[in-house]
């Protein structure tokens, strides 16, 4: 089928313009908790630049601010709700007795 006979296909991309995640008045600072939490996942990880739709400079500033807030204990390193998976379970011995060397 050549191009002239194809039916008009709509583009998969939407043309809606989204507001930028960081407005011009927002200060990227370690004390601005509401701003920093928008760029973190539920587990407490820093989201990537593509997900955040930030410029490289903005992503660097956000990353530094989040790390400073973590060090000053303003933000957790991991989310406490998901901490159960990181807790160590009771260890069991791999062997039941001492091993002896057979000659």
Automatic annotation (TrEMBL):
One Gene Ontology MF term: structural constituent of ribosome
One Gene Ontology cellular component annotation held by this UniProt entry: mitochondrial small ribosomal subunit
Subcellular location: Plastid, Chloroplast
Entries under SUPFAM superfamilies matching the protein: Ribosomal protein S18 (SSF46911)
InterPro entries assigned to the protein according to its UniProt record, in alphabetical order: Ribosomal_bS18, Ribosomal_bS18_sf
Keywords, sorted A to Z: Chloroplast, Plastid, Ribonucleoprotein, Ribosomal protein, RNA-binding, rRNA-binding
GO BP of this protein: translation
Superkingdom to which the source organism belongs: Eukaryota
Keyword Cell inner membrane (UniProt): no
Subunit structure: Part of the 30S ribosomal subunit.
Listed NCBIfam families: S18
Family classification: Belongs to the bacterial ribosomal protein bS18 family.
Protein name from the UniProt record: Small ribosomal subunit protein bS18c
Annotated organism of origin: Campsis grandiflora
Lineage of the organism: Eukaryota, Viridiplantae, Streptophyta, Embryophyta, Tracheophyta
